[in-house]
Amino acid sequence: MDTGNLMSLSRFDGQSKLLVRSLLCGASGANRALGVFHKQQRANPGKSLSNFIETLCQDEITCPETETQPLTVKPLVCLFPALFKENLLSFIYLVYPALPQTTVLHLLKCLSQDPHPSPWVSALVRLLERNLGSHNEEPLYTPLCSQRLKELSQRLVGFGEAGGWAKCFSGQTVEPGSQSTSALSELGTQRKRKGSFITLDSDGEETGQQHKRIKLDVCGSERLDAEEQNAKEEISGRLESDAPGETPAAEELQPAPGRPCDVLPEHIKVSILHIKELLESQTEWDQNSMDVFKVLNECEPGQVEVLCSMLSLPDLPEQTLPKLCSSILAPSPDLSYSTATTLIKSLLLEKVLSLSEPASRCLVTAVTSLCSRCPRPMCHALIGPVLEKKNIGNPQAELLNRLIEGCLDSHYRLLVLQMTLKTTWSEAVLSIIHSLLDSKLDLSEELFKQFTEQLVSQGPQFTKSVKFAKMMLTVLTKYSSYVTAAHKHSLNGCLVLNETFLKRSLQAALKRNTHS
Fold first, then answer.
1. In this structure, how many other beta carbons lie within 10 angstroms of the beta carbon of residue 102?
2. What is the average pLDDT across 476-481?
3. Interatomic CA distance for residues 498 and 438, integer angstroms
4. Residues with Cβ < 8 Å from 218, sequence gap 6 or more?
5. If residue 59 lies in a helix (H) or strand (E), which one and from where to where?
6. N or C: which end of the chain has fewer CB within 10 A?
7. 322: preceding bond cis by omega (within 30 degrees)
């Protein structure tokens, strides 16, 4: 658009200007506009395209190209470049079922006032008119294309003969030297030229222009058939599911063949598109958006795994985690054990294991929110696997201690303590065990026996460890009533090896034991 036409953008409101800019963005303008429209609908569920289309249909005074020409009045839409009109009609084709029919027909009528429409715009107008029931029986191809096809058919096999095009493509024998042979030879030559079509004239520049028009016109019908099919898929897969144009289509979210749940129910596929769009958006999530997570309560365990894989949950940025976890936990009833376990493992485990510095606020918020509502799945899907990993560091220990102190009740703390008995202890694990013991667990005799046996067996590798010494001191002070004579003998052998500054305190605590 020229400067004068750009001034007419002031006719549009702020949201409509975003649509205009999207439709001016090259070949992807229709998809971009669809994404913008859906985001506007989520922010304002009552959002309609009627005002946008009415503005396009308003009359605009245009300046003449020369001083001798009078001022003219045209619909605003006619002042935009051809690419905008093509994108606009493609966009309208995707959403017209949700628009008032009179509004769309009014826009098409305005576009018909364009004195020099492109063949693609003309074809799309006719296609929309057909779909809207206006009984436009005009062919989608141009008169020039029709004439060229007739001439081509005459040169190839003879227009009007029985068989027509079918003979041409069924291996019809052509007499040498005939006009058809020449035409077929010319066709073969032209096919060798990448992107070329047959031209029947050789008048220089004008022929080149006609060449381009022929290419567009010949392909017009086929292109529109493909567009119609794609649009139907777009409407069913994106428009009804309120997904944006930039997000992958449903076909791209299909599980790979051979996986346990190759086929997901349609409503789950639609929900996956919704969720993926939410995860990629930069706007706030409203209640309607978060309701899509209710689908998790309807999924079978295998379907949850496929869902997590499709959404690439392990790769989500940490700043997305708090609102995602909040949305997952919002629906009622609570998540099942299997669903929660799969989600926690997919969403959090890799992030926690890869920590090389203290967890971010976003990660801590996500982990604690899920742990508070789903403690048992958290123990089995996150805490247990972290403890089983060798050489976990202080960042992991610090995060697990937060969960132990702030989210787990005594029952699940006992469960975590039992998990530590099945792992190889490290400095990080020692701090976790110390945190568990410091909360004064209600141990059974059998569990205390197992714990002291583990403590004695792993003690020799921690003779210089202050953490190990502090943990033992906690055992001898807070759990003195559990220590029997047999325990005392075993623990004394462990204390002999201790080389820390706490050795005397440990020996004194053991002597004060009431069972001595």
1. 10
2. 87
3. 21
4. 141, 145, 148, 149, 197
5. strand 59-62
6. C
7. no
**Pair of tokens at residue 401:** 């201690």
- Give the confidence band of 137 by pLDDT, cuts at 50, 70, 90: low
Residue identified by tokens 């325990």 is 487
Q: Identify the residue with better confidence: 138 or 312.
A: 312
Q: What is the pTM of this model?
A: 0.51
CA diameter of the chain:
119
Distance CA 236, CA 239 (A): 6
Contact in structure between 74 and 63 (CB atoms under 8 Å)? no
> Which amino acid type is present at position 208?
G
Q: Please, are residues 433 and 420 in contact by the beta-carbon 8 Å criterion?
A: yes
Which band of pLDDT confidence, cut at 50, 70 and 90, is reported for residue 344?
very high
The DSSP result for 119-135, as a single string, is: HHHHHHHHHHHHHTT--
* Res 429: pLDDT: 93
* Pairwise CA distance, residues 477 & 438, whole Å: 10
Structure tokens at 157: 């096999």
Number of C-beta neighbours around residue 290 at 10 A: 17
Query: How far is Cα of residue 229 from the mean position of the Cα atoms in its chain?
Result: 23
What is the spatial distance between Cα 420 and Cα 418, in angstroms, rounded to a whole number? 5
Please give the C-alpha separations between residue 96 and each of 49, 103, 374, in angstroms, as whole numbers: 10, 10, 45
| Predicted confidence (pLDDT) at residue 171 exceeds the cutoff of 60 | no
Does 136 score more than 60 pLDDT? no
Q: How confident is the model at residue 4 (pLDDT cuts 50, 70, 90)?
A: very low
Determine contact, residues 429/423, Cβ cutoff 8 Å: yes
**Where is 207: in which H helix or E strand?**
helix 205-234
State the Cα–Cα distance between residues 406 and 369, nearest whole angstrom.
10
Q: How is the chain split among helix, strand and coil, in percent rounded to 5?
A: 70, 0, 30
Residue ranges covered by each domain of the chain: 3-131, 143-239, 250-440, 443-516
pLDDT at 346: 92
Q: What is the pLDDT of residues 395-438, one digit of tens each?
A: 999 999 999 998 999 889 999 999 999 988 999 999 999 999 98
Neighbours of 406 (CB within 10 A): 11
- Regarding the domain delimited by 250-440, which CATH topology (the fold level of the hierarchy) does it fall under? 1.25.40
CA–CA gap between residue 118 and residue 82 (Å, rounded): 7
How much of the chain, in percent, has pLDDT values that exceed 70?
72
How many other C-beta atoms lie within 10 A of the C-beta of residue 303?
A: 21
Residue 60 parent element (H or E): strand 59-62
